[in-house]
Each structure stands twice: as structure tokens, then as C-alpha cells.
Amino acid sequence: MSRASLDKQPHEVAAMFDDVAAKYDLTNDVLSLGQARLWRKAVARAVDARTGERVLDLAAGTGTSSLPFREAGAYVVPCDFSLGMLREGKKRHPALPLTAGDATRLPFADGVFDAVTISFGLRNVQDTKGALGEMLRVTRPGGRIVICEFSHPTWQPFRTVYTEYLMRALPPIATSVSSNPDAYVYLAESIRAWPDQPGLAARLRSAGWERPAWRNLTGGVVALHRAYKP
Predict the structure, then answer these.
(1) pTM of this prediction?
(2) Binding-site positions for S-adenosyl-L-methionine
(3) Considering 48, 52, 83, 147, which has the largest number of Cβ atoms within 10 A of its Cβ?
(4) Would you indicate the residue range of the signal peptide (predicted)?
């Protein structure tokens, strides 16, 4: 079993996700109290994939997050750097073109995607600015990025309860359903260390994206960010 540390060494993060691949989707449903499915639907609406468009789904894991884009008629490329996740995804969704790739060194040409999306993965990348720059590079001019990531609840009393859940309740629950509960200790720590909504919007601007905006989901537990390539 393995867990990553907050310096997010790529080999540690990849190994951690390899360990949890088999039960990853189930564990997410349990730990999010069923909200994970609603969040995926919100991402699909925000990306608004159209027939014939090319969508890059980064940190796609087993490919579950990519299915709505394919169903909308887009050509979707699920990409992840955890080979364990990709192997599990290939068993479940053999028709998807699952691709191994590092978000900071994407194996794609310039300007080939109409939309790039990443859900619950940017927080695990060591070089956030480099990853946002790579996503900008592979997106066509006028194309869009949609980021779904854990964030900061907007109501202070709820924020306190949520923080207590992360640090006290989440690890024991993960022990009962996950193949690597230690990975979910990292999850809690990395969420607490992640910037708030305006902070991520500032990082998007710094990387060259324009018109960043966000919408809170579940009271700010998760935020959807969208921006556009000039």
C-alpha cells in the first residue's frame, strides 16, 4: 500500500492511484455520500460537448468521467498517468481510447482539442502552472477548459463541519471500502492545502487562460471552473 505526500512526487501519486484503482469509483460514491455522480453530471453540462468535437479528459482514471462526452457525440480521449487506473478502465470500457500521459508533458500536438477537462486531478499535480500551460497548448484558440476540483465551503459553520469530516470521519470510512485507506488521508490533507475559488481563478489567468469563472457545487465543497483560450 502507498500514499503520496503533499510534495506530490509523480511516482508516489501514480503508485497511490494504482493501489486504489479497483474500488476507486465505488469508494468515491461512498465518501461523497452519492454526490460524485451529481458532480460528474455538472461537469458534462459545463463542458457542453457537441457532436464532432474533440475533448481531452485528463485524470480520467477508469474512464467513467469520459462516458458523457462520448454519449454527446464528441471524440473523447481519456488520459491518466496511473497505469493501474487505465488497466482497470480498459476492462470496463474497452472501446474508449485510454491514453497514458503526464499532465505536465501531454503527448498531444498543439491546438487539437476543442475542450479540456480535469476532475479531481489538478490538485494532485506537482506543477499546477505547468499543467495549466500544457492544457492551454493542446486546446484550439477559442476552446475551453473545465476544472472540477474540491474547494472551500462558502458558509463558515459548514466549513468547520466539513473540515472535521475530512480529517476524522473520512479515513475510517475509507478503511471499510477502499483497497488503500491511507490514500484517503492524503486526499483529506491535499484538499485542505488546495487554494480557494479565487485562488484557482488567479492560477488560470497566470497560465494564460481568459475569462475564468466558477460555480460552487454542494456549498463550495466542490467548484467548477471554466475559462477560454485566447
Answers:
(1) 0.84
(2) 62, 80, 102-103, 119
(3) 147
(4) none
Q: Which amino acid is at 46?
A: A
The alpha helices in 115-229, defined as continuous H runs, are 128-138, 156-164, 170-177, 182-193, 197-206
Residues in Cβ contact with 139 at an 8 Å cutoff, skipping those fewer than 6 apart: 111, 113, 114, 115, 116, 145, 229
Give the count of alpha carbons within 13 A of 136, CB side only: 18
- For 37-90, the pLDDT digits (tens) are 899 999 999 999 999 999 999 999 999 999 999 999 999 999 998 898 899 999
When the candidates are 3.40.50.150, 1.20.120.350, 2.10.70.10, 3.30.450.40, the CATH number that belongs to 10-151+196-229 is 3.40.50.150
Cell numbers placing 55: 475533448
Listed by start position, the domains of the chain span: 10-151+196-229
Summarised one tens digit per residue, pLDDT across range 157-172 is: 877 887 776 667 666 6
Binding-site positions? 62, 80, 102-103, 119
| Mean pLDDT rounded to a whole number for the chain | 85
Separation of alpha carbons 214 and 154, rounded Å: 13
> Strand, coil or helix: what is 44?
helix
Dihedral angle computed from the Cα positions of residues 15, 16, 21 and 22, in that order, rounded to the nearest 10 degrees: 100
C-alpha to C-alpha distance for 182 and 33, rounded to whole angstroms: 19
Tally of residues, the chain:
230
